Amino acid sequence: MGDLGQKRLFLLDMDGTIYLDDRLFPGVLPFLEALGEAGGRHLFLTNNSSRSTDDYVRRLESMGVPARREDFLTSVDALIAHLRGRPPYRRCYAFGTAGFRRQLAEAGIPVTDRREEDVDCLLIGFDTELTFRKLEDACILLNRGVDFIAANPDWVCPSWYGAVPDCGSVCEMLRRATGRRPQFIGKPEPAMALLALERRGMPAAAAVLVGDRWSTDIAAGANAGIDTAFVLSGEGTMADAAAGPPPTWIFDGIAALHRAWETARRQREEESAR
User: Fold this and answer.
1) Where are the chain's structural domains?
2) What is the CA radius of gyration of the chain?
3) What is the CATH number of domain 4-47+187-273?
4) I need a surface site. Which of 89, 98, 107, 135 has the fewest CB within 10 A?
5) Phi, psi of 119, rounded to the nearest 5 degrees
6) In this predicted model, what pLDDT tens digit does every residue of 70-93 receive, in sequence order?
7) Alpha carbon distance 29, 24 (integer Å)
8) End-to-end CA gap in the chain
């Protein structure tokens, strides 16, 4: 097991980890303040591709959390990095929200929301503005043979009333209709976690990935060689933690993680003083 007291970078999932809907979980602000005072860093990671980075800045600020654009890494950021690392497409059909399309366009990705003849790739994200026309366009394009890339594989997005279908569920619906499966980019693939280390300039040994889903958050950390903290404040349960590669630590929530981190740091300081 890793040494929690030596961790200087906390990669924090958001939905179900630091908040649910518009309710910030207890202990989040004290933890971020203590982390900053100790010289640590954090980065908010999310598979939710329906919102832009600016949307997340405003959302956290509305909850009283100081936030800057550089504090966030979304599955759309990872998708953009992936697209920049391969030969360019002529035009990509962006199946998602207006914010999803805008973020791709601002990054220089040629996107459209129309079924144009030169479209050679279908990019799909969590679409809270879903219409039947988009589903029909996607089926026609997939049957035409265009590439198929998805920002995230999540089946559902948690909410106070339960959950709603996320990107993975819509991709499964399209698979049932066309037989086509997408290449997924977000967690549990390691790309987001590795990109986070690169952005913060820290090694994997200094980091811990914190999240409430074993299938995405914990698996992403394991795939990237990063220690993980599984929190039970969102969708995940103890049964999930036993289903695959175990997380490094398990906590009830961020407040419990904060207490454990402070205790581990004090123990390291006491040992160093001997």
Assistant:
1) 4-47+187-273, 87-184
2) 19
3) 3.40.50.1000
4) 98
5) -65, 125
6) 999 999 999 999 999 999 999 999
7) 9
8) 23
* pLDDT tens figures, 8-51: 999 999 989 999 888 999 999 999 999 999 999 999 999 999 98
Give the right CATH number for 87-184 from 3.40.50.1000, 3.30.230.10, 3.40.50.720, 3.40.1190.10.
3.40.50.1000
pLDDT tens digits, one per residue of 95-130: 999 999 999 999 999 999 999 999 999 999 999 999
The total of other beta-carbon atoms located within 10 Å of residue 100's CB is 29
| Alpha carbon distances (Å) from 75 to 12, 152, 186 | 13, 7, 5
Place of tokens 């103890």: 238
Q: How many CB atoms lie within 10 A of CB 109?
A: 21
**Torsion angles phi and psi, residue 212, rounded to 5:** -105, 0
Type of residue found at 32? L
The model scores a pTM over 0.85:
yes
